[in-house]
Amino acid sequence: MNRNDTNVKNVEGRGDGQILVVGGYGHVGARVSERLASRFPGRVLIGGRRGAAAETLADRIGYGARGVQMDIRDPESVADALDGVETVVVCLEDSTGLVLAEAVERGLGYVDINADRRIMEDSRRLHEQAVTSGARAVLGIGLAPGVTNLMAASAARAVKDPTDLEVGILLSLYDEFGPQALDFMLEAGSRPFPEPRAGSTRLVLPYTEPRPVWFGPDLGFRQARWFPLADQFGYNETLGVKSAATVIALDPRWIDRIMAISARLRVLRLSALPRVRGALTWLPMKLFGTARPAPVKVSATARAGDLTATVLLEAMGESQATADALAAAASLIGEVEAGVWLPEQAFDSITFLDQLTTESDVRITWSEPAASNA
Length: 374
Known about the structure:
Elements: E1 18-22, H1 29-39, E2 44-48, H2 51-61, E3 66-69, H3 75-81, E4 85-90, H4 98-106, E5 109-112, H5 117-123, H6 127-133, E6 136-138, H7 147-159, E7 164-172, H8 179-188, E8 193-194, E9 203-204, E10 211-214, E11 221-226, H9 235-238, E12 243-251, H10 253-264, H11 274-288, E13 295-304, E14 307-316, H12 318-332, E15 339-341, H13 343-346, H14 349-359, E16 363-366, E17 370-371
Helix pairs in contact: 1-12, 7-14, 8-11, 12-14
């Protein structure tokens, strides 16, 4: 399943079939629905368990969008919703895998924002079936994972034969995260994960092992800590590196310190409990008041010997950037080969990032390979 990201072939161009946005009225989904409806008038269906909410949003958006009631836990409901659909855009975590399985069986286009590496590993087992059916599926194409994968691929290509990759993400808790995103971060932070290094069997604790990350000339270096986002677990295979790491830093800085101390004391293990996560998801609203989009920074650095190359991203709002990336992926899915892919396997990194910056407020800058100061 290894692909060179410069060899994307147009196997099946965009048609005029319907585009089903699953979870299309949620925090991320509403922005995705609006973006796609304006780009593909008369083709967008907004799907979810609350049919009235889907229809209300469709009426507000216009462009011929329509609401569809569906339940991703019900195979019959999923099958009915996919009748006449050409592309499926999943804006929530589908742990059942029913939507992907049905899309692969029917040979459809498919993109999602899943960020759980375990679900991704299960999903990739459908690759050969997708090749046979003609389905084109791209997993985990939000901001992180997703855009981070393509930034990493771009940095890796700049140094030609990278051995190490590091992705750093600076998030603000003043940002308007959806509850599912906060729940995922807390749950993922509760358990150790395998080090993404070739041949390693070591387990890493989330929010540990700080390292300095360059976030551009305005911010300089910030200490960031390891976090189990799914992008880093595929780079050994897809980009040929020996080691990878995705690390995060949080604003305000006192939250960063609390998380680091909690990780060291193993307190974060308690967030594995749903009730604890529920309380902690509610806490940011009480601490910071009404959330609004806040700046997010991402840095991807590839190393080969003494050479490094860095790609920097700046956006306003993590959820907005995630929605914009997902909408861009959906519009490009007809140019992807049949199969179940990770983002850096499916898309040419430069082409995708250029389109994303053209159609959103995301800003990306590339550095020329230079001798490392490390």
